[in-house]
Write a structure and sequence with these properties.
The complex is a heterotrimer.
Chain A: H1 4-8, H2 23-61, E1 66-74, H3 78-86, H4 90-108, H5 117-124, H6 127-137, E2 146-151, H7 154-160, H8 177-188, E3 192-196, H9 198-202, H10 217-248, H11 253-265, H12 270-284, H13 292-317, H14 320-328, H15 333-361, H16 365-369, H17 386-389, H18 395-404, H19 409-439
Antiparallel strand pairs in A: 1-2, 1-3
Chain B: E1 16-27, E2 30-41, E3 45-49, H1 56-62, E4 73-81, E5 84-85, H2 93-99, E6 100-103, H3 114-124, H4 131-144, H5 148-151, H6 164-177, E7 182-186, H7 194-207, E8 212-216, H8 220-226, E9 229-234, E10 237-243, H9 244-249, H10 254-260
Parallel strand pairs in B: 3-8, 3-9, 6-7, 7-8
Antiparallel strand pairs in B: 1-2, 1-4, 4-5, 9-10
Chain C: H1 3-28, H2 40-77, H3 89-108, H4 114-118, H5 124-133, H6 144-181, H7 189-229, H8 232-237, E1 241-242, E2 253-254, H9 257-288, H10 291-306, H11 309-328, H12 342-366, H13 370-378, H14 383-412, H15 415-420, H16 438-446, H17 455-488
Antiparallel strand pairs in C: 1-2
Helix pairs in contact in C: 1-2, 1-6, 2-6, 2-7, 3-6, 7-17, 9-12, 9-14, 10-12, 11-12, 12-14, 13-14, 14-17, 16-17
Classes of the chains: A mainly alpha, B alpha/beta, C mainly alpha.
Protein name (chain C): Phosphate transport system permease protein
Transmembrane segments (chain C): 41-65, 161-180, 200-221, 259-285, 305-328, 340-358, 457-482
Family (chain C): Belongs to the binding-protein-dependent transport system permease family. CysTW subfamily.
Amino acid sequence: MTDATLHDGQPAPRKSSLHQLDALTKKRNAAESRFKAYGIVAILIGLFFLVVLTVTIVRSGIPAFTQTVVAVEFTLTQEQFDDAESKLMKTGAYQDYFIAAMEGKLAERGIEMDFDPAAIERLLGKIGSNLREHYRANPGDLGRPVSFELSASSRVDGYFNGRVTRDTLVESRFLMLSDLDLVDALSDAGLLKQAFNWNFITGADSGVDNPGGAGIGASVVGSFFMMLVVLVLSLPIGVAASIYLEEFAPKNRFTDLIEVNISNLAAVPSIVFGILGLAVFIQFMHLPQSAPLVGGLVLTLMTLPTIIISTRASLKAVPPSIRDAALGVGASKMQAVFHHVLPLAMPGILTGTIIGLAQALGETAPLLLIGMVGFVARGYPDGFLDGFVEPNSAMPAQIYTWAARSDVAFYDKAWGGIIVLLVFLLAMNFVAIVLRRRFERRW
Amino acid sequence: MYDALHRQKEVDVNEIKIAARGVQVHYGDNHAIKDVDVDIEDKTVTAFIGPSGCGKSTFLRCLNRMNDTIPICRVEGSILLDGEDIYDKRVDPVQLRAKVGMVFQKPNPFPKSIYDNIAYGPRIHGMARNKAELDEIVERALRRGAIWEEVKDRLNAPGTGLSGGQQQRLCIARAIATEPEVLLMDEPCSALDPIATAQVEELIDELRENYSVVIVTHSMQQAARVSQRTAFFHLGNLVEFGDTSTIFTNPEDPRTESYITGRIG
Amino acid sequence: MPLLWLIVIVTALAAAGFFAGRARALQSAGGNIRDLHSLPSYYGWNVALKALVPAGGLLLVWLLAQPLYVNATVSATLPEAAIAEGSSRDLLMAEVRRTAAGLDSAVAQGLLSADEARDPQADPDAVSERLKEAGQIITSQITRPILDAAQMFRAMNATGALIMDFAVLAAALAGLGFGLRETQREFRARNTVEQGVRALLLAAASIAILTTLGIVLSLVFNTWEFFRLYPATDFFFGTTWAPSFSGRGGASELGILPLLWGTIYISIVALTFSVPVGLFSAIYLSEYATPRVRSVVKPLLEVLAGIPTIVYGLFALLTVGPLLVGVFGKDGLNIMQSGTAVMTAGLVMGIMLIPFVSSLSDDIINAVPQSLRDGSYGLGATQSETIRQVVLPAALPGIVGAILLAASRAIGETMIVVLGAGAAARLSLNPFEAMTTITAKIVSQLTGDADFASPEALVAFALGMTLFVLTLGLNVFALYIVRKYREQYE
């Protein structure tokens, strides 16, 4: 079969020392290093963006958690109180006392400064009425020094974290250039300090012209009720569907149809689920708009395929020998699954469910379509059951609303909201990882 | 370049091609090869036999540094190819493997056409200046792989479409195409039926004219049929090495005798 | 009776049924478990399921059907004359529902007595005054027909809820009785319960089909509605997107082409960025990286996939956009007007897709058998030659599938384009110009005070339909390719 003549014509084997690289090998090795470098560069690009993203979020988000407060120790005597209460412009009188006290403090530290009362109002809001309310509610404080911490407007925050500078400031009814002199003076006098902004954690959305008062608390509650719906619905339904498909489903066209549907639903854009929610739950069933219940239903439908896919993988990972062992001692198929397979698969199922929930928690687009936009989140629900049906927003939708507002002061809030959202997501993923590590079983 | 050691190319059969001295292989904590010395002669078929897990395949893979692709594998000792240590720092395994080709247990044609399968090696080693030369190399390799007649009309068909025996001969032809000096074969017939095995064995016998062939085999009959020299491995040790006829008729070591008479293995 | 109570009572009945059934079974066997066909608890479960499932199913169906029925009946009683110019029956019904809800909560707060709320003689103006005082959101003055309809709405709902309570309780009791009656020694309780559970499992699995059906139906009906108001050819071939919300009727131009172009253009930018980066990362991780590097880098890259898209949206709007303007804006090359542009959204979307492409490709590259690599190394190929000439061609179909899946993700992505791409629909080749996409327009057409019957709102469903068909087609095709590829090496 072999052609001997061809072999005679073959070139003599190249006789080269292995200890010396020939030119071609050098070239090929250079190509090798280049190719490897492309891979490293690609990975570095990915990691670079991860770092940039993290740094951006942390740097831009931290300011949302602090606010500038003016801390002034202030004493109001009984006479002053009576005097103020007898005046026509009661709050104005309180404001005058306050300004006098503040000037005094500044003078103590050797700073002389003229400012107009309107500036105080621009910086600190309506302090007169705040003071009056305090003394009317606590008459016992009259005559003794009380230290007030008055939160400054969000523009002052912006001035301190560099978002607002003297060069870029556009004078408006919210802030004048001259006001910044006062801010500097107060700062020099040590009357200004940074305090933790509890209102951001616990508060609700504010109006479009009050970025300082905006908080994410209400939408956290909205997200919580939504996740409750998702958990209560998707875990049992997802597990039941997976058990059916993995353990009981006969091989027929209906089963195939279900399988095809699940794998396709997993890749349907989330916004389409929003359309589904709008058309079916709100237009057709007349469920309340902007309700966490509806949001939860939509997100349930969206996460079910993910949960089913991961649950089936966990069920598949339980070796058939376990089922055979159970069937061998006379258990029914159903008993084998519920007594043996399911408990063994449970850690995997829970891990998958938590990851599915985390995905749902970060989803925004479908919520916008069913009306769960940020400005709906004006307060906490009245009761537990009301939490499901009262209009509310969710964290990501709240963040979107802030990001879409024209006032740049809301951007801080949006970044801060992202930190809160990511803390929740990290916590959920952490739980999932711990579950996986703790209960992971290798067969 | 003309090396001193290659001066007498025309010298008869017994020129030593590969000399292994004190080779030790560790797979992680597993001591897979223990202090093995072997001389592989040129233009000879050398068979490695032994029970499963005895280290014969591992040792074979040391000869062209295929073990480099396994991170936990560590090789000690020296293996000289034409007097040069292939584990020397200066040696590029890529250049080495062009000289020491390998055929694997399972036929593994690339998912490309038959032509491209054969042309792959010559292309990466820059052996052809133009298409005509490449065509010639491909035809020569296929002829020497004893598969030319079967595939000459469908060189552009995918290599994976061939039968098992044809695929293995294609893989042998592919290994020959780069004109190696040594051809390593790791149980090349274990996935083939008896007819295909016979064809491949016939081919190996013909290859002996030009190459030094090292074959790992599970079948003692195969070793007896195709090889001139046989090495018997057991538990990572080289137990006995000698002429095939001697090993099979008059083994020195009792372990070799037990194995070839079927008591261990 | 509040819904919660009904559910609690039915559950309690089921629980009682469980214990009663178990006790009855034991009794029928004279206390000897061995004489029973099944374990005692199966008899209990049988009774509990028979009490719970039919009642629960009835409750669910009723809750879905009653609002539809009430809505349709009340809507039919609204006189044609009550429908104001430019309004519709649906809008009026919404007003009726709001009024009814307002009356409900006013009664609940004690601001209005139950009788007053029901009083057919009540003066609509007085009622709307009272409701406004009570802080209920009433958009317009309540008219006579609306008040009548609202009262009818409340009455029907109240009656319906009452009948439902009785029907559900009756169903639960009947199931309980039936279950208990069949509980005796020879009854094959385990088989019955297992059949029931199996049916429940099947029902759970069928939800996937119902969801798809829901999506398709809601898209098809509303799209159909849209095409009755707006010609389909103008929608599919129109090159201008200019909806007008102010001037109702005919003023809008709703051509999908600019949106489709924006969608495709942004996806192309995203893929041009993410495919090379993702693919090379996957190659490095699966072929070169040591297990330790891999175990650190792979999860880190996958963090990028776990970050919600709103975060990327914000990143595009506030970080990447201004950065690009700094380079390409009027201080730099002067080809970029504002931060929101195709480039901004595309780049950020590309970052999001890196882990998506890399982990899919990683799986696919790992599925290429090691024997092919060995074959190539055995011939003296370098690692990169092996990858480029053996591994990648072998993995090509799978990688194409992965890229198609990534493309489908890019097309369906919403938040990044809503925040990063701009709102202007235009057909342009300049990647530094603002463009918009199908998804962004679905959001903008369906949020806000749109009237759901207008073509400007309905067009969102036609857009959604296009998006659904597009992504579904890509997915089915991609999954087909990937599956074919897997079979090749299994």
